[in-house]
Amino acid sequence: MGRLWESLPVILLLLVLLLHQSVSQGFEESESTRLVNEEVEVSNAPEIHCSRERSRAAWQIIQDYLTPFVERERYEIPKNCRLHPDNDLYRDQEHHKVHVDVFEWKCGYCKKSFNDEKFLDKHFSTRHYNLLNTTDTKCLADLCGALHCDFVLSSKKPKSKCNPPAVAKNRHLCESVANSCFPVSQGPSASRLHEHFLRQFCDAHTCTGNDKPFPRGGKKKSGVFYLAISILTLMLLPLFYLLVFLHQREKRSGTQDLRRIIKCGKKTKPS
């Protein structure tokens, strides 16, 4: 009996993992089927030569490593700056993403639900492509070279050999962004942000390997790991108390049986 209770947490964990795998697989199959149908229905979607993934990475880098400093200076980025939100081709669609739950994403245009962000991206590309303004060059992914998107996206991959011409091109792009977005003639705030942008992004465009991107830090990350541990603890706490209760009950039951045996032994008279 004791061994059964000891193995109970392992059994429950295996059941939860199997249930999660089956549910996720079912969701993915249903979403894949839905997207195949959408692709058949909408076959005239134009091909857009702008990576959504890299645009999203560039936007996140801006939010993490530049926006906090811009807000601190109370500086308004000019619209002709390529970092301005209006110059992000996918910004409106990204604003219409609703992350309801871990396995639920909802389209803000038509309210359809998806179990993964990649399916929602595909939905945008096939159903709401007409909402994209493709008349102007507004691909934020084009700035990935200056903003070190590869450093963020490929942080766990082995580093490729440095290419001096590519590094020089990215540095020139980085400096041109700094000049157009934070012209030093616009006052002290713009001048400080211009200096910050050069140090934060442009200095790392070198083959020496001495300078790393984002040396001045950025937005503080929330403790996702500690949050997950807290949730897991709250989930396992009732199970722990249940096991303690069952153990105590089994222990009391054993004690009572022992007392009965002792009493029976005392009542039995010697022959």
TrEMBL record:
Residues 1-24 form the signal peptide. InterPro entries: Znf_C2H2_type. Keywords: Membrane, Metal-binding, Signal, Transmembrane, Transmembrane helix, Zinc, Zinc-finger. GO terms for molecular function: transcription cis-regulatory region binding; zinc ion binding. The chain crosses the membrane at residues 224-246. The keyword Metal-binding applies. The keyword Signal applies. Residues 105-128 form the C2H2-type domain. This is Zinc finger C2H2-type.
